[in-house]
Design a protein that fits this description.
Belongs to the ATPase B chain family. The protein has 184 residues and is mainly alpha-helical. It has a domain of 105 residues. Helices cover 89% and strands 0% of the residues. It contains 3 helices and no strands. It is rod-shaped.
Length: 184
């Protein structure tokens, strides 16, 4: 400290030898230069630095305010999107449940209609079988009747002679005549 005070004291005692000179004592001149530079910076730079810091502070505050507004808007949009998502999920679940129940209903209807169709086909089959059986029975009856008739005619033709044949015809004509009289 003594060197610092000595340097101030020695300012007044500088020799006037030729004009301007440099003090090469670093320890004596450095604190003085620093104090002068700091004083000038504080005096002149205070307003500029204060203005710059105030501007920077306002820009930071505006940026924070804008960010908060954007964040609030984003949060609001996120909540709306979540609400829409929940609504769509509920509708999808409802469609899924309705779809499954509709599929089950259609499946049951299809099974029932198939069962009814099978029943009808079974009935048609049974009716067709019954019809074919009746037709076959009638054909067999007709053939049996034809064969019996042919056999009877053959027997009659072989057994009947002319005299027996004429008596049979006369008897039949007589029976027809008496039947006619009864009906009149």
């Amino acid at each position: 400290m003594k060197n610092v005070t000595d340097s101030f004291v020695s300012l007044g005692h500088w020799p006037f030898t030729g004009g301007f000179g440099f003090n090469t004592d670093i320890l004596a001149t450095n604190p003085i230069n620093l104090s002068v530079v700091l004083g000038v910076l504080i005096f002149f730079g205070k307003g500029v630095l204060s203005g710059l810091l105030d501007n920077r502070k306002q820009r930071i505050l505006n940026t924070i305010r804008n960010s908060e507004e954007l964040c609030g808007g984003a949060i609001e949009q996120l909540e709306k999107a979540r609400a829409r998502l929940r609504k769509v999920e509920m509708e999808a679940d409802q469609f899924r449940v309705n779809g499954y129940s509709e599929i089950e209903r259609e499946k049951l209807n299809f099974i029932n209609s198939t069962y009814k169709t099978l029943e009808q086909l079974e009935n048609y089959k049974n009716e067709t079988i019954h019809f074919e059986q009746q037709r076959a029975i009638n054909q067999v009856r007709q053939r049996v009747f034809q064969q019996a008739l042919q056999g009877a005619l053959g027997t009659l033709n072989s057994c009947l002679n002319n005299e027996l044949h004429l008596r049979t015809i006369s008897t039949n004509i007589g029976m027809l005549g008496s039947m006619k009289e009864i009906t009149d």
